[in-house]
Amino acid sequence: MSFQFQRKSQSERERILLEKSEQFLACGIRSTTIRPGYNMIMKSGKGAHITDTSDNEYIDYLLGSGPMFLGHSHPAMVEAVRGRVDQGTSFLLTNDVAIELAEEIARVVPCAEQVTFHNSGSEATYYALRMARAYRGRDKMLKFEGAYHGMHDHALMSAQFTMEPADFPQAVSNSAGIPQQTSGDVLIAPFNDIERTVELIRKHADELACVMVEPMCRTFTPLPGFLEGLREVTRELDIPLIFDEVVTGFRLALGGAQEYYGVVPDLCAGAKAVTGGLPFGFVGGRRDIMELAGAKGYEQGNHVRLTGTYSGNVISTSVALALIKELQTPGLYEEVNRKGLRLKNALVEMLDHADIPATVIGEPTAFQPMFTSQEVIDHRSYLTIDWAKNFRLIELLMDRGIVKGQEKFFISTAHTDDDIDYTIDVLKDSMEELKKATF
Length: 439
Ligand SMILES: Cc1ncc(COP(=O)(O)O)c(C=O)c1O
Prior knowledge:
- By secondary structure, this protein is α/β, with parallel strands linked by helices.
- The protein has helices at 12-24, 75-84, 96-108, 121-136, 194-204, 226-237, 256-260, 287-290, 295-299, 314-326, 332-353, 379-382, 387-399, 417-435, and strands at residues 42-46, 49-52, 57-60, 114-118, 140-144, 186-189, 208-213, 241-245, 267-270, 281-285, 359-363, 366-370, 402-403, 409-410.
- It folds into 2 domains: 12-60 and 331-435, Aspartate Aminotransferase, domain 1 (Alpha-Beta Complex), CATH 3.90.1150.10; 75-326, Type I PLP-dependent aspartate aminotransferase-like (Major domain) (Aspartate Aminotransferase, domain 2, 3-Layer(aba) Sandwich), CATH 3.40.640.10.
- The strands form 3 sheets. A 7-stranded mixed beta sheet has the order 4-10-9-8-7-5-6, sandwiched between helices.
- A hairpin with a 4-residue loop joins strand 2 (49-52) and strand 3.
- The mean pLDDT is 97.
- The structure holds pyridoxal-5'-phosphate.
- Residues 65, 120-122, 125, 148-150, 214, 244, 246-247, 271 line the site of pyridoxal-5'-phosphate.
- Pyridoxal-5'-phosphate binds next to helix 4.
């Protein structure tokens, strides 16, 4: 049956839970928009759909911010958990599944000769940075304006939340509680501006531990030559190039953005698409750098410490292993890209037809409408978007049973053509309202 949506009146349970979340959760209620009338408390997810505690079912394009690439509660993920959960979950000692998974990642991710396991994308970028620092014997990191690498102190600099950017390469802290001196260890460059970036890298080469980049920076796709240029200059100067593949890994292609765009970094950080939503992350990379985390590091007096109580636990690694196998189903990427592209192209057409100044950027399974007449290729052009339209779109979709985050439409292999058709119809009906959006 085709998807239908008629909002049910709020259940007593959801009303009470909303109150309690304000009372007991320090961050309050997590919502995709800013008007409180749209707050809801989720209770379950299956495939590409999620359900709230008033029993409203939504088509989900937030997908937990990306991890549910194969849909919620995918049978392979459920089976992987069930198949191991009664045989011990965490040992701190190397286990059989972790080795199998490491071998599999090394087989499919181009830069990964060796891997380490962690518990989130933030941990993965944090440890990749530490490895690079040890390898280079230098402290500073160069990242790009608008790029998000997680929640650790060095990552939360000039990320997408930055409304008032500073002059390059000055970093702007995005959170209270980060030591002031941290910003001095982070240099900021303009994404997609290879000349300016190479100039900054050359100027600061003696201080740099690494260059970290989201190969698709949020949804800014790399201009031809940008990633290649980064590769060239970092190779020449022997500065590790780190791809943050937390979003793009296993999503753009089995081998991630490095396979998709054809540029292989020295290190990469991965997480979301193979986690099934469980805590998991990994660093993969060149053997001579990765080895610093093991006996070689001790021998060289340059050992990188990065163990964690839950790192490589049997449940997360079993799920990742099962999902990587699942991703090798013939035709899977063609099919998910086809569906994503269908929605993306339909959105472009509708915005154009409705005469709404906008462009839709990103790749077929992670794209975003940008409400501006400018071409959006970096953070500064992103800042020209009409935020009222951005938020209004989320509300118009939610009114009709569709959940989307503030940034991307994430597409999963579980979205059906029926889901896409329904979404296109809703978008069509929303254009006139969207045009009028103001705060
Ligand atoms: C590109 C990128 N890197 C790192 C992270 C941090 O990952 P996590 O939330 O698992 O810590 C995210 C999270 O959204 C991300 O999008």
